[in-house]
Amino acid sequence: MTKIYVINLKSSIERKNNISRQLDELYLPFEIFSAIDGRALPFHPLLKSYNDNLSQTYRAKTLSSGQLGCYASHFLLWEKCVEIDQPIIVIEDDALLYKNPFLNFMQDIPEIPDSIECIRLFNNKRRKFKSYSVLECNSTSIHKFTKGHMSATAYFLRPSGAKKLLQNSKEWYMAVDIYMDRFWVNNVECYGTKAPCLTNDPKFDSDIGYEKRASNRSLIKKCKREWFNLSETIQRHLHNIKFKNDMKN
């Protein structure tokens, strides 16, 4: 059985109880992973990886302490995945599970080839994207997505994918879900389930907090950001073309 880790701040007791109840009802063993609180002193050493200058230059935003804690929490679970050398499922504590699709996915994991290193388990939140089937398991359809999902609510991850995420995450300047979406940079292809296995529970507000937009940005920084966004679009598009051509061959 694939190990399930639930990211939870120690202070978020209601969230822990809610997700624990859902997993217990499905008779699925899991482990609560104590999230890093980016607001707590002393600051966790991993938060030194954040480069605010790059964040403001390329994203026009400063990451909140909650976002930094979220990044650190996922980063530590990537390390855990490599350490135990087994695939894992990471779930944030505000998830609302869809019983049958989630159980079906758990049962279908043995059918998934090693080449599929990471699978998002929720609906893609982009306004425009395309997807197409790359694997039909017994009860789950795995799709390749042309754009990332804009969230890290829950995902399946192999050690090989975790290593790539770690290797390409030496310096942080965007939220962890946006970093994970940059599959052309981190080399972890963007797969997801066609039908969602879960979603975010609407009764919970975000524990993360929002980014702060940079103010009084120089013309040079504005130009750098526009060039960065254009470059991202071009690289993503070229990567997707190559991926589709490779599938045909």
- The coarse overall form would be globular
CATH architecture: Alpha-Beta Complex
Based on CA atoms alone, the radius of gyration comes out at 18 Å
Portion of residues within helices: 40-55%
Distance between the termini: 34 Å
What is the topology, as strand order, of the major beta sheet? 2-1-4-9-6-10-8-7
What does this protein look like?
Helices cover 40% and strands 18% of the residues. It is globular and about 55 Å long. Strand 1, helix 1 and strand 2 (31-34) form a beta-alpha-beta unit. The chain starts with a strand and ends with a helix. Helix 2 (52-59) crosses helix 8 and helix 3 (65-84) packs across helix 5. It has helices at residues 13-25, 52-59, 65-84, 99-108, 159-167, 176-181, 183-186, 219-248; strands spanning 3-8, 31-34, 61-62, 88-92, 95-97, 118-120, 131-136, 141-145, 154-157, 191-193, 198-200, 212-213. With 249 residues, it is an alpha/beta fold. The chain has one domain (3-248): Alpha-Beta Complex (Spore Coat Polysaccharide Biosynthesis Protein SpsA, Chain A), CATH 3.90.550. It contains eight helices and twelve strands.
Key attributes of the depicted protein:
two-stranded antiparallel sheet, Spore Coat Polysaccharide Biosynthesis Protein SpsA, Chain A, alpha/beta, 249 residues
